[in-house]
Amino acid sequence: MEQQRWTAPAAAALLRALLLLPLTAAQEAILHASGNGTKDYCMLYNPHWTELPSTLDNAHSIALMNLTATSLCNLSDIPPYGIKNKAVVVPWGHCHFLEKAKIAQKGGAEALLVANNSVLFPPSGNRSEFPDVKLLVAFISYKDFKDMNQTLGSNVTIQMYSPVWPNFDYTMVVIFVIAVFTVALGGYWSGLIEMENLKVVTNIEDRETKNKKEEYLTFTPLTVIVFVVICCVMIVLLYFFYKYLVYVMIAIFCIASAMSLYNCLAALICKIPYGQCRIVCRGRSTEVRLIFLAALCIAVVVVWAVFRNEDRWAWILQDILGIAFCLNLIKTLKLPNFKSCVILLGLLLLYDVFFVFITPFITKNGESIMIEVAAGPFGNNEKLPVVIRVPKLISFSVMSVCLMPVSVLGFGDIIVPGLLIAYCRRFDIHTGSSSIYYISSTIAYAVGMVLTFVVLVLMKKGQPALLYLVPCTLITASIVAWRRKEMKKFWKGTNYQTMNHLDYSTNEENPVLTDEQVVPQ
Predict the structure, then answer these.
(1) 206: pLDDT confidence band, cut at 50, 70 and 90?
(2) Is the Cβ–Cβ distance between 322 and 21 less than 8 Å?
(3) 316 or 211: whose pLDDT is higher?
(4) What is the 3-state secondary structure (H, E, C) of 108-174?
(5) Per-residue pLDDT reduced to its tens digit, 237-274
(6) How far apart are CA 267 and CA 293, in angstroms?
(7) Distance between CA atoms of 273 and 276, rounded to whole angstroms?
(8) Is residue 413 flagged as an active site residue?
């Protein structure tokens, strides 16, 4: 209980940020450079703006010109010898990259490559403000451009092409398994805790004391509304002060994920009847194995924090910590009734849709606030660590030169529906409904994830997953309650503080309570 008290404030703060990220994927292409040898580099471009050939044979050669010493924000920045028929490399900043493209096109350039410290997402912006820009605009890593000069020399020609991706992206399978596994296990774990609470608490006075201790973990309808308002304020603050707040979010993630990982592993270790030797310090007895476990969890978090920008393997640690964080939050936070579930999921659905689809009509650059915060400002290499990241399985493809072709799923797309599934599991336990609510809502979540992936593939654009997950789970739970004629009880939830007796004689794992034992709130 003390561990949950410690982690709740940090977890709640991080939960506000993890709702910022929709399901999204980068658009990668290959830059084949030739000089004193040849080498392939990764670049990102917007396929809705420019089409690239799918093979190297169909890509024509363009001489590369280094203009990183100038911003190319004015016609006077074009060198006297001109840039006609060149692919010019310019730095990020000073003016919008589409303004740079407009200047480059007037100078006769064939392509504009923007060298930047961070290229995880394709170039975007309000193209309608620059309708006359026809040349290719792409982003490359400044580190890659520096390597290109050192490896191939100053006289470099390039060919750009975008290989055809397989029709099926296997990263979606990995994300699907992680997401469904996490919500299913988190909901089931929440049910186990509820069963233990019902078994242990037999005295009314003890029960009232226990409920008071756990009251801070419960989302009431008013708490839900306040929480969503805070989410809106948080995303706006991140939009304007990202370079400062991103480090605050990283620190919170480290603290919350370390304790979540400890809680998850401690629950497993405590089931093992070995290594239970204790040490006494200041009158308190602690198992030695739990001390070593705490040290291990801290070490994992420290390693991730130090190497969080290591593209090759840091995502594994982030996903492990993320899964633990989601599990701990799903089993810790409680929605007391279906009414709170509807309010929470409904408001967050509107929140998600607004910040993804509506804000592009408000922002100056025509980009959604959600995507802008998810990608992080160009030039800032730090990203919000509140997503499940899975690199695309392309190790045998030419596209493996792209270090970070990833698919991501925000923690909020796991936790928010997971809270509903956890409520369904607890309701099953209290009503003895043979896990029908829990199983059906979990299946509905899986269907919602599949639907999200289908729309993502068809539209080739990042999607707010809650747009599909929320209707699937809420409608399914409502149908089950309506068919079982339990909608009133399901809507209001149940309060068991006045129960005097629990009958566990039928099934130890799935106790059945009579109607007299269920007292509506």
Answers:
(1) low
(2) no
(3) 316
(4) CCCEEEEEECCCCCCCCCCHHHCCCCCCEEEEEEHHHHHHHHHHHCCCCEEEEECCCCCCCCCHHHH
(5) 988 888 889 899 999 999 999 999 999 999 888 887 77
(6) 11
(7) 7
(8) yes
| Rounded distance between C-alpha atoms, residue 463 and residue 24, angstroms | 6
Q: Per the residue annotation, which of 77, 144, 169, 413 is the catalytic one?
A: 413
The string of pLDDT tens digits covering residues 126-185 is 555 556 777 888 888 888 888 888 888 888 899 998 887 666 677 888 899 999 999 999
For 447-462, what is each residue's pLDDT tens digit? 999 999 888 878 766 6
Poorest-pLDDT segment among 28-32, 279-283, 310-314, 421-425: 279-283
pTM of the model: 0.71
b/e for 284-301, b at 16 or more Cβ within 10 A? eeebebbeebbeebeebb
Where b means 16+ CB within 10 Å and e means fewer, 134-157 reads ebbbbbbbbebbeebbeebeeebb
User: Of 77, 144, 169, 352, which one is the catalytic site residue?
Assistant: 352
Is 311 catalytic? The answer is no
Burial of 327 (0-12, 13-18, 19+ CB in 10 A): buried
Position 521: which residue type? Q
Pairing of strands 157-161, 62-66: antiparallel
The one-character DSSP state at 24 is E
Contact (Cβ atoms closer than 8 angstroms) between residue 300 and residue 261: yes
Q: Which of 143, 132, 141 is nearest to 104 (CA)?
A: 132
406-410 and 387-391 strand pairing: antiparallel
Q: How far apart are CA 65 and CA 310, in angstroms?
A: 30
Q: Are 237 and 301 in contact (CB under 8 A)?
A: no
pLDDT for the residue 30: 87
First to last CA, the chain: 25
176: left (phi over 0), alpha (psi -120 to 50) or beta: alpha
